[in-house]
Specification:
Helix content: 25-40%
Shape: elongated
CATH architecture of the largest domain: Beta Barrel
Number of helices: 5
Number of strands: 14
Radius of gyration: 26 Å
Structural class: alpha+beta
Length: 233
């Protein structure tokens, strides 16, 4: 599970804003939370809060005076091991996940049904807003960068087998596409595109194994980034 996928997301409404103290009170499903002031915060504003599990501290009882503003008693609903630690999910009125070590789970005897207190600093509550956007990937080669448009040209060459058709598909002239191919070959320090006899218009273009590897890397990164971006929404 990636960091974004396991991040806590809490729907909340701003109850009050104290601009002098840089302080916001929120109602998250009946739970009152304190957060640091953000630009544009206003009473009645509906927000989504993102909280990293690493920022949730667990203790066995309510502590004395501490700087942490959010002290949330709850009950453990699940304990799940991950390569990076153990995710402990608590019901504090809303579901809240904390990432701790296996030693912590052992020392605190944490299991479903265990009563714990979650501590959450106001600065850890970050409002997030969905935006309309997409991810484009560039690949850094030995002698420069293959940007998203040049990668799109590689994709078009791969699908069409023709530099002419590929140029038409991405909306550039044949000369521009040819210059991009020369530039990409130089950037990579090896041929990414080769020409062959035959094919549409009497000649064709093929991607080399290096170019296939470049595209696989770029698309894998793009899918991962887009997936994480979608999880943020």
């Amino acid at each position: 599970m990636n960091e974004t996928a396991r991040r806590n997301r809490l729907a909340a409404v701003v109850r009050s804003v104290d601009r002098e103290a840089s302080f916001v009170l929120l109602d998250a499903g009946g739970i009152v939370l304190a957060a640091r002031l953000w630009a544009g915060a206003a009473e009645g504003q509906a927000v989504t809060l993102a909280v990293r599990p690493e920022d949730v501290v667990l203790c066995t009882e309510v502590p004395g005076k501490i700087s942490t503003r959010n002290v949330l008693p709850g009950v453990v609903s699940s304990v799940g091991r991950r390569p990076e630690g153990v995710l402990v999910t608590l019901d504090v009125g809303v579901s809240l996940r904390a990432l701790v070590t296996a030693r912590t789970v052992e020392d605190m005897e944490i299991q479903p049904g265990t009563r714990l207190v979650a501590l959450l600093k106001a600065t850890a509550l970050v409002p997030v807003e969905a935006v309309e956007a997409r991810v484009e990937v560039s690949v850094l080669g030995p002698h420069g960068t293959l940007d998203a448009r040049k990668l799109a040209l590689l994709e078009a060459i791969h699908s069409s087998g023709s530099l002419t058709a590929a140029a038409r598909e991405i909306g550039v002239t044949y000369r521009t596409a040819w210059l991009w191919v020369m530039s990409m070959n130089e950037t990579w320090g090896a041929a990414l595109v080769t020409t062959v006899q035959g094919g549409p218009g009497g000649g064709g273009a093929l991607l080399t194994p290096s170019a296939q590897g470049v595209l696989q890397l770029a698309r894998r990164c793009e899918r991962q980034a887009q997936s994480e971006f979608s999880d943020e929404e």
